[in-house]
Amino acid sequence: MTPPPRRRRIQLFPVLGGLVFLAVAVLYLLQATGVLRLESRLVLPLEAAGLVVAGLLAAVYSGRPRRDASQESSER
Question: 60 CB contacts (<8 Å, ≥6 apart)?
Answer without folding.
Answer: none
